[in-house]
């Protein structure tokens, strides 16, 4: 079953690359996303029967992140289905500099998207640090053509930074893997230690000096991919230049995958008795990320870049929660779930706004409520959720992490955390609200007749661009007021393996 | 045996200095080929007693990719874009040499507490692998041309491979193979990106890729 999860998207992706037919590919994308989600659901219901080897297996953490990835991909696939149709084949005028450019071929785009899904699935199911390394590097390579979908110089710049920075990061992570092996070489009869179960089994006899060095290298390496500041430089560029559904996937699924790998290495560190080192580093990087995000959101003029920095912020919160430990671990995992849902929704809503206003500048978007009422509602709800207002799930997870900080008596960390969250709350709200409520300036966009306007706006907002987003928002809303028992069981399971409560 | 290892270590250090102080691209690619050959030689010598079939296979694939395919691809990129040297780097060549010396010192310092001191090879090769890694990173940061940055990335990979060889780390075949393939595909995609960059901008200087920024 796990193998099917990997092989299905990969083989369909290959088929798409070879077929060169845009329409067929669009349908295949949605179908394979549906199949993938269904299989994940079945897998989640019958976990006892899953095979588990040294290489591949599905534990609590893997299942949690696999489910998020699969769900988000389904939404993004539906959105992309309509998006690719709307883009068409003719040259498109650039919205910022007004030159004409072409998109890359849809078959290539869809094929790479499916490869991307396969590689992300591989990250979540692998039980071997070497295989995880390969999978993370493969996600970089398969998503690079997706970022370069619009063939113009800005997306080229973004993709170059993305490949180079992430490859350098991932190279450091490989050195980290080697260090882990060296840390275990003196253990008799174990062979090279990289399989997660072996590592945890032999954790107490690992060489601490090498393990610490390995953790630093892995944290820098995978942290680059996760978007932790100060290694986040690729993130705003890639997120702002990629098509919106891809930004949603990068932010909601890819960053989580990198986080999952760090989580695994953290588990090894904890069982090796080196948990304090890794916790301290997580807290440090988390605070730096929060600081960077707060500073850059204040002055941001581009709403997609604003969302990208918000991703840096939330990755910082997740790292912080993990570093605090205790209830913070549960909070941080729950935060990852909510962040994926909301950020996926927000990025795709940003895509709708871009399609309507042909701009990414915050100041140029006015009166969203009058021109695109549904998009406006989603944008408002998403912004409320992302800054941590109740009743959305992010409020709950941020509160849990704060509670964990106060429990462990880290008042300085809690103060810095609240300050950064407060700044981001104010800055983001001040940018989003005028976009929605200020009166529209463009006379063409408003029609005097109220009914007519309503009909027009309904027509302008097709179902594919609204329904998946509303679904994500609704899910996060539900998670904010009701925690399903299976989810809390899953979160507790992961938390227990990390020594939380 | 030890004298041979000493000789190779010094050669690797000198090759790194050659890389970070050279403005010409073709000699840099040749240096990369020599590095790959030396590393494979070291790997072969450290495992002379117990060479298994899969080790031979790995060595052959490694030599084939790093000493033949990748340099050939990079040479093609260089020739297609008609670039022979890196002009006007961010850090000049004489300062680069001095920084190289500093990097070597830092690598020796870092590797002292880390050394397990099982054998002489490990003591020698840990600083060298770190130095190679740092030289690669330095090349990526201090040079403007996209192709030089790719060269820097490959130097970094060589540094990591040096470490793997010296510590005799041999993971199962599947991981090693896929690691090699990943590096190969990464460089391939970077090559394609360079091609697009040169077509879009008529040059491959990455310092002009600076539209996207916040400060």
TrEMBL record, chain A:
Domain NADH:quinone oxidoreductase/Mrp antiporter transmembrane: 126-417
Any GO molecular function: NADH dehydrogenase (ubiquinone) activity
One Pfam entry name: Proton_antipo_M
Subcellular location: Cell membrane; Membrane
A GO cellular component annotation in the UniProt record: plasma membrane
Residue spans crossing the bilayer: 63-84, 105-125, 131-150, 162-187, 249-274, 280-299, 311-334, 378-405, 411-430, 463-483
Membrane-topology annotation of the record: Multi-pass membrane protein
One of the GO biological process terms: ATP synthesis coupled electron transport
Family matches, as InterPro entries: ComplexI-like_HydComp (IPR052175), NADH_UbQ_OxRdtase (IPR003918), ND/Mrp_TM (IPR001750)
Keyword terms, alphabetized: Cell membrane, Membrane, Oxidoreductase, Transmembrane, Transmembrane helix
Main location: membrane
Name the UniProt record assigns to this protein: NADH dehydrogenase FAD-containing subunit
Automatic annotation (TrEMBL), chain B:
Subcellular location: Cell membrane
Main location: membrane
GO CC annotations on file: plasma membrane
Annotated transmembrane regions: 6-21, 28-47, 53-78, 90-112, 124-143, 150-169, 175-195
Keywords, in A-Z order: Cell membrane, Membrane, Transmembrane, Transmembrane helix
The protein's name: Hydrogenase
PANTHER family: HYDROGENASE-4 COMPONENT E
Keyword Transit peptide assigned: no
Provenance organism: Desulfobacter hydrogenophilus
InterPro entries on file: HyfE-like, NUOK/Mnh_C1-like
Entry membrane topology: Multi-pass membrane protein
Residues forming coiled coils: none
Claim: tRNA-binding is one of the keywords in the record: no
Pfam families listed in its UniProt record: Oxidored_q2
Top-level lineage group: Bacteria
């Amino acid at each position: 079953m796990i193998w099917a999860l990997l092989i299905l998207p990969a083989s369909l992706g290959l088929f798409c690359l070879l077929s060169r037919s845009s329409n067929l590919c669009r349908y295949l994308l949605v179908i394979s996303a549906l199949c993938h989600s269904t299989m994940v659901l079945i897998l989640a219901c019958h976990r006892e029967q899953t095979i588990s080897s040294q290489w591949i297996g599905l534990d609590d953490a893997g299942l949690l992140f696999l489910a998020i990835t699969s769900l988000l991909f389904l939404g993004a696939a539906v959105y992309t289905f309509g998006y690719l149709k709307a883009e068409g084949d003719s040259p498109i005028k650039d919205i910022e500099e007004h030159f004409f450019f072409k998109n890359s071929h849809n078959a290539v785009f869809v094929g790479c998207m499916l490869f991307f899904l396969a590689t992300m699935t591989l990250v979540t199911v692998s039980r071997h640090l070497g295989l995880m390394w390969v999978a993370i590097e493969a996600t970089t390579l398969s998503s690079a053509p997706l970022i370069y979908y619009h063939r113009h110089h800005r997306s080229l710049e973004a993709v170059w930074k993305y490949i180079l920075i992430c490859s350098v990061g991932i190279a450091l992570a490989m050195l980290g893997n080697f260090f882990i092996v060296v840390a275990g070489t003196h253990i008799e009869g174990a062979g090279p230690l990289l399989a997660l179960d072996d590592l945890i089994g032999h954790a107490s006899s690992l060489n601490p000096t090498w393990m610490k060095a390995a953790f630093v290298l892995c944290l820098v390496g995978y942290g680059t991919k996760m978007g932790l500041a100060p290694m986040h430089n690729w993130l705003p560029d890639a997120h702002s230049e990629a098509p919106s559904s891809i930004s949603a996937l990068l932010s909601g699924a890819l960053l989580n995958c990198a986080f999952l790998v760090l989580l695994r290495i953290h588990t090894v560190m904890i069982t090796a008795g080196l948990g304090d080192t890794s916790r301290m580093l997580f807290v440090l990087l988390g605070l730096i990320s929060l600081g960077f995000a707060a500073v850059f959101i204040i002055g941001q003029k581009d709403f997609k870049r604003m969302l990208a920095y918000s991703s840096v912020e939330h990755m910082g919160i997740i790292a912080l929660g993990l570093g605090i430990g205790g209830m913070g671990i549960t909070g941080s995992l729950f935060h990852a779930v909510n962040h994926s849902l909301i950020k996926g929704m927000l990025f795709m809503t940003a895509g709708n706004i871009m399609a309507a206003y042909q701009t990414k500048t915050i100041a140029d978007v006015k009166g969203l409520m009058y021109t695109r009422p549904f998009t406006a509602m989603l944008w408002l709800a998403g912004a409320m959720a992302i800054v941590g207002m109740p009743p959305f799930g992010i409020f709950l997870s941020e509160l849990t992490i704060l509670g964990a900080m106060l429990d462990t008596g880290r008042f300085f960390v809690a103060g810095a955390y609240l300050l950064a969250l407060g700044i981001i709350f104010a800055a983001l709200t001040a940018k989003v609200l005028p976009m929605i409520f200020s009166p529209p300036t463009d006379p063409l966009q408003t029609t005097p007749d109220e009914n007519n306007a309503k009909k027009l706006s309904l027509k302008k907002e097709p179902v594919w661009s609204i329904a998946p987003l509303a679904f994500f928002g609704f899910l996060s809303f539900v998670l904010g007021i009701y925690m399903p028992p299976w989810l809390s069981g899953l979160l507790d399971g992961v938390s227990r393996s990390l020594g939380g409560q | 045996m030890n004298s041979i290892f000493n000789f190779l270590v010094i050669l690797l250090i000198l090759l790194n200095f050659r890389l970070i102080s050279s403005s010409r691209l073709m000699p840099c690619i040749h240096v990369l080929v020599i590095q790959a050959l030396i590393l494979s030689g070291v790997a072969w010598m450290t495992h002379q007693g117990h060479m298994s079939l899969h080790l031979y296979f790995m060595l052959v694939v490694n030599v084939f990719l790093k000493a033949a395919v990748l340099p050939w691809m990079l040479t093609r990129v260089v020739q297609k874009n008609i670039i022979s040297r890196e002009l006007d780097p961010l850090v000049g060549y004489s300062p680069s040499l001095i920084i190289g010396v500093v990097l070597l010192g830092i690598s020796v310092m870092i590797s002292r507490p880390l050394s397990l001191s099982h054998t002489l090879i490990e003591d020698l090769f840990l600083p060298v692998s770190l130095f190679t890694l740092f030289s690669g990173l330095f090349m990526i940061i201090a040079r403007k041309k996209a192709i030089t940055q790719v060269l820097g990335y490959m130097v970094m990979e060589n540094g990591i491979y040096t470490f793997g060889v010296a510590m005799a780390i041999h993971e199962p075949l599947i991981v090693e193979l896929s690691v090699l393939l990943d590096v190969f595909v990464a460089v391939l995609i970077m090559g394609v990106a360079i091609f697009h960059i040169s077509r879009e901008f008529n040059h491959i200087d990455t310092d002009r890729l600076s539209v996207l920024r916040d400060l």
